[in-house]
Amino acid sequence: MAKSHSLRGQVAIVGVGDTEVGKVPELSATGLCIDAAKRALDDAGLTKSDIDGLVTCNSMAEPHMYHAEAMAEHLQIFPSYCVSAGAGGGTTFAVLYQAALAILHGICNRVLISMADSLRTGLTREQAMVMQSSSGHPQFETPYGATVPGYYALIANAYMHRYGVSAEQMAAVAVTARAHAALHPGAQMRTPLTVEDVLASRMIADPLRLLDCSLVSDGGAAVVLARAEEAGEGPHQPVYLLGAGEGHGHEHISQAENLTSSHARQAGERAYAMAGLGPQDIDFVELYDCFTPVVLIELEDLGFCGRGEAGAFVAEGHTRLGGTLPMNTHGGLLSHCHPGNPGAMFALTEAVRQLRGEAGERQVVDAETALVHAQGGILSSHCTAILGRGR
Amino acid sequence: MSVNAKPLPPINPDTQPFWDGCAQGRLLLQRCGDCGHLQFYPRMLCAACGSRTLDWAESCGRGTVKTFTIIRRAVSAAFEPDVPYVVALVELEEGPTLMSNIIGCDPAVVAIGQPVRVTFETRAESVAVPQFEPMP
User: Fold this and answer.
1) pTM of the model
2) ipTM strictly over 0.90?
């Protein structure tokens, strides 16, 4: 296994910014990306001329051939490191440590990562239809008419069948997310939910019901990364990158070697190894909750629960604020917002706010160390990052 | 992209023999001439040993439902008349897994582990896609 311990504590997040989320028709996808960037720069006490690295991801609503370059032009910055990343939802944390490497190797000094999209109000009918119909392998999946919830339902059904996890336990993931979103003033959906509400919502693709599925949102978020040595110069407590790791299993779900676990396990093991930490050292987690069962598989793959035990773990309340492992403290993709590829950026900005102690009513007490995880494709490409107040 | 017709597979030179097989009512797998590995979907190299020496072998067409879902909200207008329809992963007796639909039965009776057999749906002249139905 490759040795990669040198990143620990070398780079810190010194600024974060979230746009308004939900329906934001007054801003384009480009506008949201720039708005998030400006908010993160302001938070860091920096101006655009302090930035010499820029990372974005492309927008579906307002795509650019070369997205990061277009955003640099829009901002009128002239970076020495400029890339638009594309690994679906897993993009966020992969670019986080790749940007850290660019800083450590002297390619640039400060990287702005800004991602946004307008999936709620910005897509034309045709764009929405093409987006929906173009997932899956063009020859060996798309002809059979599955939807994105349908692909995830294949996993959900296999997981429930193998471990006897119940619909009520899956619903508890959505209920917990909503309870946390209710404490976040900016969340898209804040009305509390019950397990009965989830089970009464309409079936989309058995066994997934509407409230097992994440939101469709406009929104964007950004962070600023800097060398750890310089991180203390800003107005806020720096949050250090302690570990990161990727794991890639398949791209198309019909090629998955296993339907009830994923390469989140490898991503997590690599991140833990770099950080020199294990699941027992983590105070809270922000996981990728595009659909409720995904969270359960992630909790198991990342070592927080035994196989088949995550449903009971969540249903018993362990992942609620005040529980042993608070999870998705902002409400996650299920209740805070989900603008597509940028979705996990909000998990990152939330983790930073928690570690700074700025999360208000939803603050995790004594939060020192966080694990954030994102995946893209259909449980395909995974990236885990571990963040801490200390180096 | 037209959403009024069910999508046709964008066949390429690597996969042409597979789709030719479907048009003739035969489900073809690739077999490695060096290590004997059987694979689906068709590709350039053996996924087990990396060999370029690949040949075609006909599947018996029987398999079991590894997992499935019932789609209640169609992906496009072309699939709306089929709602509710079953999308499944089928594990063939020879080992490889493929995605398909389970047809010819009430979606409510489809189950994990259910034995199924291949049939083909003609979508265009010389283009047929594999479908599966419960074993009689």
Assistant:
1) 0.96
2) yes
